[in-house]
Protein: Glycerol-3-phosphate dehydrogenase [NAD(P)+]
Amino acid sequence: NGHEVRIWSRGGKVSLSAVLQNADIILSAISMTGVSEIVCQIQFLPLSGKTIFVTATKGLDPQTTCTPSQIWQGAFPDHPVVVLSGPNLSAEIRQSLPAATVVASQNQKAAEFVQQVFSSSRFRVYTNPDPIGVELGGTLKNIMAIAAGVCDGLHLGSNAKAALVTRGLTEMVRIGQSWGAKTETFYGLSGLGDLLATCNSPLSRNYQVGYQMAGGKTLVEVLENLPGTAEGVNTCQVLIKRAKEDNIAVPITEQVYGLLQGKVTPRQALEELMLRDIKSEYNC
Ligand SMILES: NC(=O)c1ccc[n+]([C@@H]2O[C@H](COP(=O)([O-])OP(=O)(O)OC[C@H]3O[C@@H](n4cnc5c(N)ncnc54)[C@H](O)[C@@H]3O)[C@@H](O)[C@H]2O)c1
Ligand SMILES: O=P(O)(O)OC[C@H](O)CO
Structure:
């Protein structure tokens, strides 16, 4: 959009301090494993008082179960933090294919500023006042995308896939409600939208994990050749821990966890889900 953009990566030659100097916006797209470390580094750097942090990471912290925006906000309480999340497969965006996303913050002005900066004829940006809901949508759908990959890898058909994705959304809503997110957020772009994109695209790394494991590969074999991070693997572990603590029913996540741990095969995971007690659609 004609803005001055500076890019930093740990492999590059430019210092983090030089890149962040007087930045209006700092956008972090680091994978979850690196967020706390980078936050610590930035805390010691001089920043403009007006800097807005934007986080695009879709994961949960293994130690605290915090979301990335909670980590950023905890470290920078005087700066606005905006979550950017939506059906945004980067390979498609790189080709200038059209996409939409959501920018969510408790600070409406900051969200609107970020919306202005990022909106273009190829990238439609909506604001939203529910950052935790938007962030959890993008994070939890990764677990469902692993399950969807298994479903397609086992050639279970369109009925099974529709059932899985729909019950996956119900599970996401249940977790979100327990964490204080708004239910309607999960029916928007960052919830259902991202769920549909990720569960239906071979471009998704999380989908690839499930698809390739259904084809007989181990998790280690899949991850060895995966381009980039499949956050759902780590998120699944964190969520299992948090769901136990908070007593939230997460049947699909439990089966994905068992699969990733090598405790059940893809077919056994399917059997477990199909043979659960029959119940009302409104019950978990
Ligand atoms: N790729 C996508 O389509 C997409 C779209 C939306 C959101 N996301 C989210 O963005 C995040 C990154 O995704 P990606 O596809 O770019 O993953 P990636 O694995 O390709 O890149 C992650 C980057 O984080 C860096 N990193 C990790 N730990 C670090 C540390 N301690 N210090 C500095 N840098 C560190 C790595 O060097 C790497 O450049 C993920 O949370 C992902 O869910 C990805
Ligand atoms: O490749 P994935 O599975 O990390 O998905 C990328 C984005 O989150 C899709 O919105």
